[in-house]
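Exam prep: given the inputs below (a chain plus S-adenosylmethionine), describe the expected output before reading on.
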Amino acid sequence: RLARDELSVFLESGIYRFQNSNFIFVDPVRVLNLSYSRFRVSPSGYYRRFFDHVKKGLDNRDCLLNARKRKRKEKKSRCLNEKELAADQRHQVTKPLLLKAHGSLLQATDLLSVMGSLNREIDSSAGSRWVELPNDHQSLIEHGGVWQAPLYEITLKLPESSPSIEVAGSSFKNRVVPLFNNLVVNETLNEVEAEFLDHQYILPRESCFYMSDLRMVHNLIPATASSGFSLIVIDPPWENGSAQQKSKYPTLPNRYFLALPIKKLSHSKGALVALWVTNREKFHRFIELELFPSWGVTHISTFYWLKVKADASLISDLDLFHHRPYECLLLGYCHGEDDIEDLKILEQTVPKDQVIISIPGDYSRKPPIGELLQEYVPGPTLGRCIELFAREMTPGWLSWGNEPLHFQESQHFTRT
Ligand code: SAM
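Solution:
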């Protein structure tokens, strides 16, 4: 395909495939907006972190100075222990691939000009869309942890007509259902508005969520293995010293993830498992030696998420030890009945050197790549898809975690 074609595909789908490589640029806002017809995710909302930073008056020069300071500090204290040395070795192996992917982005002038206009869009809409929650706002996690949690209900504003034939202007009926420890479903072909304690949420078409603590995760296990999930995406709350992370969501020690019933959630024909992980060697070793073996998962490939700013530069120096501008997505296969055949096919079809490039959104928010991953699901038909530790919902997916409605709150959207 011509480069011009790639750009028009990107403008429609939010996904730009660099020619003759496994590098992909994703615009999360464009991808997410395909899930909504009456609402839009605004770039200034999604890229709020970038935006806060503009508001605080930190220009690129300040950032560069901070990064240099960090680098000098790291150099001074550079005496790597055994795990850090191993992490650095992994990094050195991956670095040429990431540099090549970044180089491809810098050469894609058509894409760069669209990214440039995003920059202007964010600037011009600065301050107009995003409404901050009041300081006393109780989070979904807090509500889920109190004794009244079983009594909390969410009201779904469903179309009066049959779910599959929603007509413009049709009237609505309220469906009131328990919010926690309950499968809440929007089975209609359009997004549905919902309300909980004066907070409004937008649920994408044909999506569902189960909001609970890890202790209730076994409730997701299907009655029969043939109705299990064929794609399982997991973004665990890995323990991390960062104070920022602590104030964003609770984290869990590694051993808790061993309890995730991945095998029981998987379809009898097997499942593709995609696990997000940071660059800490401790986590990589735990996954290789304990987590994947205990889940019955065979590692197939590692994808990389390379984080850039709207001007296409990396969000931090590639060699900055504790602030690498990339994260890993480990792809594995959870064995089904036809084991060997499916594993062989997956090993051939899943690329070994995939780099996904995007501008990051809120803290720890991952780019929406569910549809990309669906390409690699084993078997002739796509079974059900589930995201574990989700903070948002996706059409056709089940989202589970202690706050799967987090990014569905109406403040993240504008009405079209
Ligand atoms: N993938 C998400 C995204 O792109 O926004 C980020 C997930 S974040 C790394 C981990 C999530 O796990 C957080 O929402 C956190 O609140 C949730 N979590 C932490 N402890 C939990 C528990 N005990 N049970 C269920 N969810 C938990």
